[in-house]
Design a protein that fits this description.
Elements (H helix, E strand, L loop, with lengths): L4 H10 L12 E5 L5 H9 L4 E3 L18 H5 L8 E5 L12 H8 L4 E6 L2 H14 L7 H6 L11 H9 L7 E5 H6 L1 H12 L21 E3 L1 H11 L8 H10 L3 E3 L5 H4 L2 H18 L8 H4 L4
Parallel strand pairs: 1-3, 1-4, 2-3, 4-5
Antiparallel strand pairs: 6-7
Length: 303
Amino acid sequence: MEASAPQKTLDQARNGDSASAGALPNLIVIGAQKCGTSVLHYYLSLHPEVSMSKPKELNFFIEERNWPRGVDWYKRHFDPNAKVRGEASPNYTAYPQHEGVPERMASVVPDAKLIYFVRDPLERIAAHWVHNYAKRREKGTLAETLVHPNTSYITRSKYAMQLERFLQYYPREQILVMQQSELRHNRMETLRKVFEFIGVDPDFTHPRFEQERHQTSRKTRATRLAIKLEKIGRSRRGRWFPTNFWLVLDDRLPLRRTIKRPDVAAALPQETLEELRADAERLRELTGRDFANWKLWAAAGGS
């Protein structure tokens, strides 16, 4: 029986038989959000055998994002001459906010290597909240925000739940699970493991591997005055003033306030902490790692 048109497109893409430019990726960083995916993407891009997508987050396998653009659109983001071609989209592990991701991914790139970076769930939630609060996206109390059904703070921190969905379509040996803290505190050894996993020279080093980027602790929240001035600066009237004028204002006026890191453990109900602990226990079983450095164990009661 002849394959349907969509199936033909997928078969051609897998076999490199599409007339469009580019190629499919063979490496996808699937998350998690606020777990070091941006810096990992940056470090990977420095390796001569690796070509990472621009932009970093293509969100192709999310139906409500870029899936309707089609496989040819996706392929155009990757260098066909690179040994390893990759992208990093933390939204791929945001179930149930985004459904069907592993299924779509396996239908297009079943042989791709997947990398999943995690961190202490409480630390991830805190960094996630700081990120949103800095952008003035969160206006309720911390406790109300974290457990609100329209937010993904808790579900994105249920790493085992997210991972198990991918394991339905990808064998365990195709998925590397690492901790953000390993990349931060034991960078060279961690990058060596990543390079070995994706099949490139594990001994490669670069001076920029010493750089640490995207630190949540440095984030600030704009005051209402800052927001008003930013709107004026973008307006037709604002363009009458030189750029340096706005930079001086930002430097001289109290326009931004440092964000205090929230006490997530105190804000979450005990029931939610126990849910996170149960998921973390499953992650231990799936990975064979103990994640002993996580504060979650003490907060949820136990070790």
